[in-house]
Amino acid sequence: MAEKNGNLRTEEIQLNMGPQHPSTHGVYRALLTLDGERVVGVENIIGYLHRGIEKLAEDRTYTQFIPYTDRLDYLAGMLNNLGYVQTVEKMMDIEIPERAEYLRVIMAELSRIASHMIMIASMALDVSGWTAWFPPFRERERILDLFEMVCGSRLTLSYMRIGGVANDIPEGFLPNLEKFLNDLPRMIDEVNGLITGNEIFKARCQGVGKLDLDTAIAYGVTGPNLRASGLPFDLRKAKPYGIYDRFEFDVPTLNNGDSYDRFVIRLLEIEQSAKIIRQAISNLPDGPIKAKVPRVIKLPKGEVYHQIEGAKGILGFYLVSDGGTKPYRLHIHSPSFVNLGVLPLISIGETVQDFVVNIASIDIVLGEVDR
């Protein structure tokens, strides 16, 4: 031990957290430099899950690549599908049927709710809230049941199609969906009672991992993490895509920018997604679910960029076409990768247990970090 600035200072050590550590939310490794329990340095080490999805796109037709998008943020597969097919459609002169547009919104917002529920449950678990882990997961299972009804799958869905969607909703889907929406306020009350208002949870999260708005913008942070720092920016409002300009909903914001606010903002956004879904159900028209598109899709030469409001922030696809049946190049702007960049900054000066909370509150999925 030695003295520095009049304070007792221990020798710094380095600690590997992950890639096997359960609190790293996947195969992510953080190299922590510690002074006792205090974090004085963080190095993000990624790449353990790299599957070369962007390169694989060059050897798949535009339709064949749709299932690969599910493997990005595999907790919000419908949103990945939507962002990609809309990118392709942006270069095609086709009109998406009205029914397909409404079905896309319903599925996308259900996917957003399911993703937020995983974040809420896993953050509670990371703070050792075993009982509080169950309610969000229980309700998420009901969303997966709905997905299974419509496309036969629960996690990797491949439901969206270029020009529309793969299947129409079956009989019984809407009654089950409405029952889920009716039960959702009870689940939110349950979470608020078990977690949000819990004095231990608040002590572990309030004031921890503070991210001010200027820093969030400078680092390119988007999505719920940005809105928890005070900026009401949501692409569904700021730059509507599809038919989102037809729906009335609010963009919740909080101002502390700490781990607690990043948790609470997801609960508020679940309520707004449910509001959108109810409007989509009430206005769901009859008609076809897919436009007439060529069996073999060829895009004109050129490039296009399209972005949507994903569950974790702005999800973008940059596509280059050489006039053939496959992408010449494809690059994915993934929010988890961008948001992860701010994790060292908000963690320095805090404790190891705070670092675990910060990872959970940033809400990363390594499938879209590494791609």
Please tell me about this protein's structure:
The strands form four sheets. The protein has a three-stranded antiparallel beta sheet with strand order 3-4-5. The chain contains 15 helices and ten strands. The protein is an alpha+beta fold and 371 residues long. A hairpin with a 7-residue loop joins strand 9 and strand 10. It has one domain: Orthogonal Bundle (Cytochrome-c3 Hydrogenase, chain B). The N and C termini lie far apart (43 Å). Helix 11 runs parallel beside helix 14.
Strand residues, percent: 5-15%
Question: Gyration radius, to the nearest Å?
Answer: 21 Å
Average pLDDT works out at 91
Write down the domain tally. 1
Largest sheet: number of strands, sense, barrel closure: 3 strands, antiparallel
* CATH topology title: Cytochrome-c3 Hydrogenase, chain B
* Structural category: alpha+beta
> Helix coverage percent of residues?
40-55%
CATH homolog superfamily: Cytochrome-c3 Hydrogenase, chain B
Count of DSSP H/I helices: 15
pLDDT under 50 segments (min length 5)? none
CATH architecture: Orthogonal Bundle
Give the overall form: globular
DSSP strand tally? 10
Order of helices and strands: EEEEEHHHHHEEHHHHHHEEEHHHH
Measured between the Cα atoms of the first and last residue, the distance is 43 Å
Level-1 CATH class name:
Mainly Alpha
**How are strands sequenced across the largest beta sheet?**
3-4-5
